Amino acid sequence: MGEAKLMKGNEALAEAAIRAGLQGYFGYPITPQSEVIEYLAREEPKHDYVFIQVESEVAAINMVYGAAGAGARVMTTTSSPGFSLMQEGISYLACGELPCVLVNVVRGGPGLGTVQPGQGDYFQAVKGGGHGDYNLIVLGPNSVQEMVDFTVLAFKLADKYLTPVMLLTDGAIGQMMEKVVLPSRMEYRPDKPWATTGKTPDRERNILTTLFIEPEEMEKRNLMLQKKYTNIKDNEVRFEEYRTDDAEIIITAFGLCSRIAKKTIDMGRDAGIKLGLFRPITLWPFPYDQLENMASRDHVKFFISLEMNAGQMVEDVKLAVCGKKPVHFYGRMGGIIPTPDEVYEKIKQHRDEGGLE
Amino acid sequence: MREGYELIYERPGPLLSTRMSFCPGCFHSTVHKILMELVQEMDIQDKIVGVCPVGCSVFSYNYLDIDMQEAAHGRAAAVSTGIKRMLPDRIVFSYQGDGDLAAIGLAETLHACNRGENFTFIFINNGIYGMTGGQMAPTTLEGQKTSTSPYGRDPSTTGMPLKMAEMVSQFDRVAYVERVSCDTPAHTRKTKKALKNAFEYQILGLGTTFIEVASNCPAGWKCTPEESLDWVKEKMLPYFPLGVFKKPERS
């Protein structure tokens, strides 16, 4: 079945993309993502995918558009400033219903920022980022294994829903080395009768466009997209719970922070504090209903969202909890990774202020 | 066919029988027609994929009975690269205006040329932004009045009109560069021949092929179609001379 290796997150992601049947990769070097493009450059002669180091992230995302429209399985990877540059193209990909995989190995921002890890691109990833009404499916891996698993999943979801699928990861997961089980080759390759491959006499011409100059037509496209997004929300929500059965305090965290949270939870449990984790895996669609159910449980006293940003996912947590329980936030910014100890101290502070045992 | 009559001319099959958005007298319609004549004559309808970006060509897919992708402004070269690299046995062309190819998309244009991407640029250079209502383009002539250069283009603040054919002919991996026009029937025939050459070289995999059409814009230039032909001849062609700037060496 699988094969176990010790690999860096970025390289494991690249290898997973190859095994998922990658046909085209278009990328530009940027720290802390560059191992992906380097790995794919190195491995290219052994495989039959097309590799181009492009002139900019703007070119990369538009090559993704052209290649996806030609029916190929394609990917680009970058880090925060590069992902900002891609936003126009991502809006086109979403509107044009072109399947592809996009990876943002997030670094601390804003601006040129730092090359250390961050989660400050959450809003950009889950609330749109580019212009117009669209969403991406956004997966938040928290380990090298999930870099692999979610890359494969991302290609499947992209083809299933004809939409760009994104991995929102960070510099720490991209750089860390862990044991990973690699998948065997993915055979799933759906027909793409809509692709621009040359008009044969047996079919009408294929046109891939995001231009709908008549408002009625543009609204129709919007309604179609929204219907698809509803379908995705109904079927693709993923999340993880850890020690929540009797938890009084729920840490909400995604990606790297969910692993820090688990350490904190174990520390708390050892000291008799009932901590638990609610971890959204699909950051879009966000597990609102599941988190709302959690908030309705009597044993849950309050939530605290742990993030490497100024407080972004906490807005979705508040939407889900809907005033049923207090929601606190703890975050570090600028590439600082919070330690389990400081999170623990912060939680104890809230607990004492809230009058909990 | 009426008895006693002989068919000597008809709309090429791949040119759809629909009303175009192009203004009367504009070379866009001419280039569309000869492009589709070639698709028919070369029997490549099932092999050709076009890319039309933002500009007057944005609706081209409504007129051409071939597979097409509509690209973001300036990104036709990147989109064409993506298609061609995935489908190397297809014939791919980008159909771009001066704003698209030489302003916002200049980086993609030059890097595609430098890599020698094996597709054909069809560059409609009319020295103005037609679709947005007649603003200055990177190829607007010195002193030429547009809505954003109302006193005439001043090179001291806006630079000189970009000579794209000359520029891209400098790249080693560009195979064929020709500037043509459609201001006379003879020039139009040459344009068709140039496009045919470009597709043939592309089929042979010789590298980037680049056809610049010194074009007109009666609406944007605020003149009649006849006057626009005079402007092409008297103003444009002296600065943008017609001819072959690069062609493949005989092997």
SSE map:
The complex is a heterodimer of chains A (357) and B (251).
Chain A: E1 3-8, H1 9-19, E2 24-27, H2 34-43, E3 50-53, H3 57-69, E4 74-78, H4 80-85, H5 87-95, E5 100-106, H6 122-126, E6 137-139, H7 144-161, E7 164-170, H8 171-175, E8 177-182, E9 207-208, H9 215-235, E10 239-242, E11 249-252, H10 256-270, E12 275-280, E13 282-284, H11 288-296, E14 302-307, H12 313-321, E15 327-331, H13 340-353
Parallel strand pairs in A: 2-3, 2-4, 4-5, 5-7, 6-7, 11-12, 11-14, 14-15
Antiparallel strand pairs in A: 1-8, 6-13, 10-12
Helix pairs in contact in A: 1-2, 1-7, 3-5, 10-13, 11-12
Chain B: H1 27-41, E1 48-52, E2 67-70, H2 76-86, E3 91-97, H3 98-104, H4 106-115, E4 120-125, E5 128-129, E6 135-136, H5 155-158, H6 164-168, E7 174-181, H7 185-204, E8 208-214, H8 218-221, H9 225-239, E9 243-246
Parallel strand pairs in B: 1-2, 1-3, 3-4, 4-8, 7-8
Antiparallel strand pairs in B: 5-6, 7-9
Helix pairs in contact in B: 1-7, 3-4
Give your account of this protein's structure.
The complex is a heterodimer of chains A (357) and B (251). Chain A has 357 residues and is α/β, with parallel strands linked by helices. Chain A has helices spanning 9-19, 34-43, 57-69, 80-85, 87-95, 122-126, 144-161, 171-175, 215-235, 256-270, 288-296, 313-321, 340-353, and strands at residues 3-8, 24-27, 50-53, 74-78, 100-106, 137-139, 164-170, 177-182, 207-208, 239-242, 249-252, 275-280, 282-284, 302-307, 327-331. In chain A, strand 11, helix 10 (256-270) and strand 12 form a beta-alpha-beta unit. Chain A is globular. The mean pLDDT of chain A is 97. By secondary structure, chain B is of the alpha/beta class. Chain B contains 9 helices and 9 strands. Chain B has helices at residues 27-41, 76-86, 98-104, 106-115, 155-158, 164-168, 185-204, 218-221, 225-239, and strands at residues 48-52, 67-70, 91-97, 120-125, 128-129, 135-136, 174-181, 208-214, 243-246. Chain B has a 7-stranded mixed β-sheet with strand order 2-1-3-4-8-7-9, sandwiched between helices. A two-stranded antiparallel ribbon of chain B has the order 5-6. In chain B, helix 3 crosses helix 4 (106-115). The model of chain B has no long low-confidence stretch (mean pLDDT 97). The A-B interface holds A 23-24, 26, 50, 52, 54-56, 58-60, 62-72, 74, 88-89, 92, 196-201, 205-211 and B 45-49, 51, 58-59, 61, 64-72, 75, 78-83, 85-87, 90, 107-108, 111, 115. Strand 9 of chain A pairs parallel with strand 2 of chain B.
